[in-house]
Design a protein that fits this description.
about 300 residues, alpha/beta, Rossmann fold, 12 helices, 6 strands, globular
Length: about 300
């Protein structure tokens, strides 16, 4: 049996996957979305100052939910990507594949490639406003999403999340420090796939390119996608994950309750959804362009 573990990053928790975990479950996959110390259900805990300690904390959670000998696929977004690499270093025998999405490392990229302060400031001033919209969540959506940066429904939902449970300021700074000083290992004894969005306003594509070069792997670029790919291109992201997994499974014999090595996932519905979404977006952009021309 195999399990997918989805890892979020700074100030985010399992609620912020926005249904992406359900997409994978609909494909018959077992999916776990552990919270990090200081976030979500663990907001009462003190956030560590090192990514390695976050990895230990997640392993403690997984040990209670994953059977001995069960293999794991990791998907880490942003700081979660750093965590995925560290977990793969700590227990490579349990990880079959690690997917690193819009992440970075201090020993591979300059600080301004890992965090764009100008875009963060711009997002704050250009954020959507309203009584039900928390300014921090509105800024985060504006900064991390390309397709939904002014999605008021999404911002309202995340604002409600913040009112229910939010990390303390102390934990936010501790998480920032852990991510800021993280250095990825020289080698990882599991397959690594690096993905990034081509419209990421928070982390430069150069950071993902550096990770891909470091691990001698190809870089998969998600078109018209911001930092939070689970929101911007969920269908395309799920399609890539399942396609890669289907193509790289080792041809070995597993036990009866294991997932067959030649499992193929039907991703046609994901592709059709992404195509339909792109056509809808382009239609809106065309209408805006035409209206602009007509007013001139």
């Amino acid at each position: 049996m195999t399990t997918w573990v989805l890892l979020r990053g700074l100030m985010r928790d399992q609620r912020h996957w926005n249904g992406f975990d359900q997409r994978l479950r609909q494909k018959g996959l077992r999916v776990l979305t552990p919270d990090l110390p200081g976030n979500g259900t663990l907001s009462h805990e003190l956030s560590p100052l090192k990514i390695a300690d976050y990895a230990h904390a997640v392993w403690q959670q997984l040990d209670e939910q994953v059977q001995e000998g069960e293999t794991i696929y990791l998907l880490g977004l942003s700081m979660g990507g750093m965590l995925a690499l560290e977990m793969a270093c700590q227990r490579p025998w349990q990880i079959r594949h690690a997917f690193v999405l819009n992440s970075s490392a201090a020993n591979l990229s300059y600080w301004y490639q890992r965090f764009n302060p100008l875009n963060a400031l711009k997002a704050f001033f250009m954020r959507a406003r309203g009584n039900a919209l928390h300014p921090i969540e509105s800024t985060i959506v504006r900064l991390t999403s390309f397709r939904h940066r002014r999605d008021r429904e999404l911002i309202v939902k995340w604002s409600e999340f913040r009112r229910d449970t939010t990390p303390s300021r102390r934990n936010v700074w501790r998480q920032l420090w852990a991510a800021f000083q993280y250095q990825c290992p020289l080698t990882v004894e599991v397959p690594i796939t690096v993905l990034c969005g081509d419209r990421d306003a928070l982390v430069s594509m150069a950071s993902s390119k550096a990770l891909a070069r470091h691990f001698y792997t190809d870089l998969i670029v998600l078109a018209y996608c911001g930092h939070d790919a689970a929101i911007d291109t969920p269908a395309k992201l799920a399609h890539y994950l399942l396609e890669i997994v289907g193509a790289t499974k080792p041809q070995v014999q597993f036990s009866v309750d294991s997932e067959p090595a030649n499992t193929q996932y039907d991703c046609n519905d994901l592709l059709e959804e992404e195509i339909a979404l792109n056509e809808a977006i382009f239609a809106v952009w065309d209408d805006k362009a035409l209206s602009t021309l007509e007013t001139k």
